Amino acid sequence: MTLTVTSLASGSSGNALLAQAGDDAVLIDCGIALRTVEKLLRYRGIAPETVRAILLTHEHGDHVAGAAALARRYKIPLICNAATHDALAETLAGLAVEVLPVAERACVGVFDVASFRLRHDAADPVGYRVSAGGATLAVAVDLGSWDATTVAGLRDADLLVVEANHDRELLRVGSYPWALQQRICGPLGHLDNMQCGELLSHVCRDRSVDVWLAHLSEQTNRPKTALAGVQRVLQVAGVSQLRLNVLPRRSVNAPGGAPSWHSDARLLQQALF
Questions:
Q1: pTM here?
Q2: What is the secondary structure of the chain as a DSSP string?
Q3: Is residue 70 a contact partner of residue 48, using CB atoms and an 8 Å limit?
Q4: DSSP letter at 99?
Q5: pLDDT tens for residues 38-96?
Q6: Helix or strand (DSSP H, E) at 41
Q7: 13-28: per-residue pLDDT in tens?
Q8: Which domains does the chain have, with CATH numbers?
Q9: What's the whole-number average pLDDT of the chain?
């Protein structure tokens, strides 16, 4: 059974990741409009009503904007922790919600799902590990700093989706007010490119791993800048075996218009070495 991961949106204007295995699919966040996510799913041959669950990382709008509408229309259960549920109580009223305590596991169709705590200015933000068919996706976006819990949550995954939100210099000279700059670069804000590289150097020191750099700021980062910044830190740390790609802010309904990863391709790559 192949685990397939597709990015539907990544950034401050919306975030949504799709994981598929066999006939099952789950969404990690749904921060894009209902009509948009419907079109993106159907283009990929997925009827929205067959989505097993929507996993919510935290309550911010760029991660949940379309979640309640999609869940309500197609009777899709939502999964989140208690604090996130409380923060979204009015929005989620009347919907099927499964409360998953932080660091506990759940079976969702063919998927094994576990969460791990992140540092961000939300009620109780988490990352997720989603496993199926012997492969694992690990997601950590919207975090201002990292610790041993973050490293453990990401370690040994086959595909990492990790935030590289901003470049320090672009943030400093940009148009954001000082207070917003301080929030972004604070310990509960967002990782910059160097912090992302440092995190990856601790997670991936001894393994060849696929990495998607996610949640790039439209104002204070660029794809080439993010790649160069992360790679520079990894080079200094002696980590050279990662396959890095930068996620676009919005996917489109066209061939190649949404980045996808397939676990069977990973197994083929491993067999070549």
A1: 0.95
A2: --EEEEEEE-STT--EEEEEETTEEEEE---S-HHHHHHHHHHTT--GGG--EEE-S-S-HHHHTTHHHHHHHHT--EEE-HHHHHHTTTTTTTS-EEE--TT-EEEETTEEEEEEE-BSSSSS-EEEEEEETTEEEEEE-S-SB--HHHHHHHTT-SEEEEE--B-HHHHHHSSS-HHHHHHHHSTTS--BHHHHHHHHHHHSTTS--EEEEE---TTT--HHHHHHHHHHHHHHHT----EEEE--SB--SSTT-S-EEEHHHHHHHHHT-
A3: yes
A4: E
A5: 999 999 999 999 999 999 999 999 999 999 999 999 999 999 999 999 999 999 999 99
A6: helix 34-43
A7: 999 999 999 999 999 9
A8: 3-271 (3.60.15.10)
A9: 94
Using the structure block, give the residue that is written with the tokens 């991961």: 5
